[in-house]
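Sample pair:
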Amino acid sequence: MRFSATIVFVAALISVNVILGSVTTYKTSQINLPDAYALQRGVMPPGVTIFIDKGNALFNQGNYAQAIQSYDKALAINANDEVALDNKGIALYGLGNYTQAIHSYAKTLALDPNDKVALDGKGASLNRLGDYLQAMLYLDRALAVDPNYKVALDNEGAARYGLGNYTQAIQYFNKALSIDPNYKEAFDNKGAALSGLRNYTDAIQSYDKALAIDANDKVALIGKANSLLGLRNFTRAIQYYDKTLAVDPNFKEALDGKGESLSDLGSYSQSIHYYDKALAVDPNYKIALNDKGAALYGSGNYTQALHYFNKALSIDPKYKEALNNKQTVVSKMRGVS
């Protein structure tokens, strides 16, 4: 019998992951905001402008922590500067500090309840925390301010994806793409939603469109690899996992996916090598623990297989695949004895 190994879709984010509105997208919309806000609210204090511009430059270099320091210096001069608050929230989001990002966006919204960047950013952060219904409340408000705000449309789709409403999610991703036909993140997310519907062929087409925009888009590369795995085209899947790993050698989902493909081809020893590499990146990666157990079972090492299923269950006692696999291996061991 084939064990319950877990395909991990990462388009964000994940389990199945969806990109919840990329920081890059925020960056593009944010970088010119200081001048725009200065025109709307009068002349900024010189120090505020300098620190925001410095923060934006650091943000563009990927130095989110240093960017936050610059935004904080701007806020020390004017604690109510919406640009600094918004950009600080975006940088915190980039660092994965979603709760702190929400706090920064809340300060902006106390000043301007219709700030679409803060509404969208708070929604995206809530998405990342798994609070999809609450996220939709803020994303809907952002879209009420600007129905064509593509980032909010993408994040609204991500929220519906998180709730398992894949068809509705695709509708929002399509709306975002109707506004920007080259919106790479929306193609990534649409591919993940199509994969959620097990429509792997169409998912691959969406990922290919993202790759036509950016050949090194690791989200699209692993998404395509996972879809090929879903189609049981294991050799082609391995090719795309390798392309993903060429971009990011420590991408644990790609390491695990390559391991699963090798396992499905019967190459258990090679698959275990890649599961071990994934676990070197994250020792508590329950999916790799489960999948390594499945490979050990396939190679006839039942005792070790049981050990790894138990390790996965120690991290998540309700992990369905590991529970099923543990039951199978225990039954097998009883039969053997």
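The beta strands are 10-11, 17-18.
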